[in-house]
Specification:
The structure is a single chain. By secondary structure, this protein is mainly β. Helix content is 6%, strand content 36%. It is built from three helices and 45 strands. The strands form eight sheets. Strands 1-2-4-7-11-15-19-23-27-31-35 form an eleven-stranded parallel β-sheet, with helices on one face. It is flat and about 60 Å long. It starts with a helix and ends with a strand.
Length: 506
């Protein structure tokens, strides 16, 4: 065969790969052209180089580095219209079969000498001015060991750096990343990046904000994210820092973060952040303001609780909230410890010692970053049914449970789940079998012509399937999705009655 023919065949092969699934497995021993698991690329950068809009890159569990050399400027860069998915074992044929929480897929900046921080990549992921939208997806990865600890321009965003770029980041875990500013995440200049079901834990800023830093018109959205145990060593901000930015935090937990000032949240320079159904608790400042410091900014709290934040030099409400330079607070259906908010806006009185959130457990408040604590609430909590349901956009809470379990939404990131009683089940007259099941379940006891919404969710809150039916008989056979072993079944009827059950797949 001539060289020309070989070149044409290779080009056709790569073009086909680039428009479909591209496989990556560091342990593959085949042709390394990305066309199958057997012939997978062993380097994620090779897959990115051939991917085009519409491609899906499937990455098997393992550790992947942006460079095999020592150039700290090399990062992974996402591409428009390309989804990058981790959490595969290396045998799957459908994306729903992957288990990203079981098959850890790591993007690591630990190039050069292993476990030597000073020679790590500046950013594990860098999207600098590439104009990405939410069609660029990163899903199911651990991002670790970036170190943007040098002077400008290499001082921001050890885990991910987005400038004028707005990708969708989902089901990712940022940990042990470092930078002068924004140890885990740095969003800059028009970035509208979205983060869904991400954990930002144990990251460090040598100056300010170990967790999430939004700077100069960044409009990030964070949904059902945990920002915990991060540290700013020598400046303002531990968990999240907003400078002339308008981020929106929904169903988020910000806890156990540490900084000299504003350990939980810092807003400055005309920022306008919104916190909807958030829990900001047990953040610790070695100087002042453990919870939220709002400076020359407009802070909005909806259905949110700020509680048990501490600082060495503050006593009383300023440990939880402090405002300066004509800052504005708009609070609705919220609770701040030590602060009396407007009751006409549905707020609870933070000066009333009986208005205790009744969290199940708080961590030791010893000025050491921590992700400990259980911020679920017990049956006596004042937060139950104390919110306003109209502001929520989510069906599930931070833990993947029903976002509205009672008559109204709760305050905070985690909804109290009312136990399903026998009388509730009799009202619905529903029975589900078999359980454990093979590939389907049967729902019986449906009423003729009644409309039902039937959902299956992963235990991490991901929607696996959803359908609306008008019952033509009293039973409905529901196929179970591939990949998930344990899932939550939710059935709602038109009258608002519901039925929840954990389903186990054999």
């Amino acid at each position: 065969m001539s060289k020309v023919h070989i070149f044409v065949l290779c080009f056709i092969c790569l073009s086909s790969v680039a428009q479909g699934q591209i496989f990556v497995d560091q342990n593959a021993v085949g042709a390394e052209n990305g066309s199958s698991w057997q012939d997978a690329f062993t380097d994620l950068q090779d897959a990115l180089s051939v991917a085009s809009s519409g491609s899906e890159i499937w990455v098997a569990n393992g550790i992947y580095y942006p460079s095999t050399g020592t150039d700290r400027n090399i990062s992974f860069t996402m591409k428009a219209g390309v989804g990058i998915y981790g959490g595969f074992s290396g045998t799957e044929t459908e994306i729903d079969e992957r288990q990203w929480d079981s098959f850890e897929t790591i993007l690591s900046g630990d190039i050069g000498i292993k476990e030597e921080l000073d020679d790590n990549a500046y950013h594990v992921i860098a999207n600098k001015g590439n104009g990405l939208t939410s069609s660029a997806i990163l899903d199911g990865f651990k991002i670790t060991h970036g170190n943007a600890g040098d002077p400008e321009p290499n001082e921001r965003g050890g885990g991910i750096f987005n400038k004028d770029s707005s990708p969708l980041i989902r089901n990712c875990y940022f940990t042990e990343n470092y930078a002068l500013y924004g140890g885990a995440i740095y969003n800059l200049g028009g970035s509208e990046a979205s983060y869904i079901n991400c954990q930002i834990e144990g990251n460090t800023a040598y100056k300010g904000c170990g967790g999430v830093y939004n700077f100069l018109n960044a409009h990030a959205t964070m949904i059902q994210c945990r920002i915990t145990g991060n540290e700013g060593l020598d400046d303002v901000g531990g968990g999240t820092y907003n400078f002339l930015s308008d981020p929106h935090y929904i169903d988020c937990l910000i806890s156990g973060n540490v900084a000299p000032i504003a350990a939980g949240v810092y807003n400055t320079n005309n920022s306008k952040p919104v916190f909807t159904n958030c829990t900001i608790v047990a953040n610790m400042s070695s100087d002042s303001v453990g919870g939220i410091l709002n400076v020359a900014s407009e802070l909005t709290l909806e259905n949110s609780v700020v509680w048990s934040n501490i600082s060495e030099n503050d006593i009383g409400p300023s440990s939880n909230l402090s405002q300066a330079n004509n800052a504005i607070l708009t609070a609705e259906y919220s609770l701040i410890e030590g602060v009396s908010l407007d009751p006409d806006a549905g707020n609870l009185d933070g000066l009333d010692i009986t208005n205790d959130p009744s969290f199940l457990s708080l961590p030791p408040l010893n000025y050491i970053p921590t992700s400990d604590g259980d911020y679920s609430i017990d049956a006596s909590s004042i937060l139950i049914d104390a919110g306003i349901s109209s502001v929520t956009t989510q069906d599930v809470d931070l833990l993947g449970n029903d976002r509205i379990s009672g008559s109204q939404i709760d305050i905070g990131a985690i909804e109290y789940q009312f136990p399903v009683t026998n009388s509730d089940l009799e009202l619905l007259s529903i029975r589900v079998y078999p359980n454990p099941a093979d590939d389907h379940i049967v729902i019986s006891g449906l009423r003729f012509n009644n409309v039902y919404t039937i959902k299956l969710l992963g235990l991490d809150g991901r929607l696996l399937s959803s359908q609306n039916i008008s019952a033509l008989n009293d039973t409905e056979v529901l196929a179970l999705p591939n990949g998930s072993r344990t899932m939550l079944l939710q059935v709602h009827d038109a009258d608002g009655k519901h039925y929840n059950q954990i389903i186990v797949k054999k």
